Amino acid sequence: MMNKQPDAFARLTNALKVLPNVGPKSAQRMAHHLLQHKRKEAQELVDALQHALKQVSHCAQCNTFCEGELCSICSDSTRDARRLMVVHMPADVSNMETANCHDGLYFVLMGQINPAQGMDISAIALDKLVGRLQQSEVEEIIIATNHTAEGDATAYVLAELFKTLPYRVSRLAKGIPLGGELEYVDAGTLAQAVYERRLLKEHEQTE
Length: 207
Ligand SMILES: [Zn+2]
Hints:
Distance between the termini: 72 Å
Strand order of the largest sheet: 4-3-5-6-7
CATH topology of the largest domain: Dna Topoisomerase Vi A Subunit, Chain: A, domain 2
Number of helices: 7
Bound molecules: zinc ion
Family: Belongs to the RecR family.
Keywords: DNA damage, DNA recombination, DNA repair, Metal-binding, Zinc, Zinc-finger
Protein name: Recombination protein RecR
Number of domains: 2
Organism: Neisseria animalis
GO molecular function: DNA binding; zinc ion binding
Number of strands: 7
């Protein structure tokens, strides 16, 4: 097979395929669009990406993306440190904050477990979560994973882990539509799901 595309174009197309839901066709379309119509914006994209790669890392406490050691929520001393909400992605934190229904802290797993691929727990930041709990005043953990197969699998693994730990554990109510990802749920429904969260396990006092 002869490859009519210049190497640089092929390399760009290949690099773009790293984006979620972008296959070879979409990648080719994007590369074409950038090189043909958006050369100036493409440079800004390069600069922004380079800057973000250098500046953005993970919050030492909640694991979300942030610039510096701690994110703005973890460094806010008015937040209720007794309640820790565990979510999949940074976008879930933004949504919860918009819904204004949780004044505690968060932990961001940065992924979810896919039961179809054999319950691989390396997909979530479990070790970091355990480390986070060791130096905290947490009493209640709210599992706020999606109500999807992946979210349920993740919630199951978390609930198993917390079984041996002294915290009260709850999970968001099913007010969220079945197959619902938190990212697409409106603020009112989200607040309702937090308010009506289901208790999985009571808090045990440690002596
Ligand atoms: Zn944080």
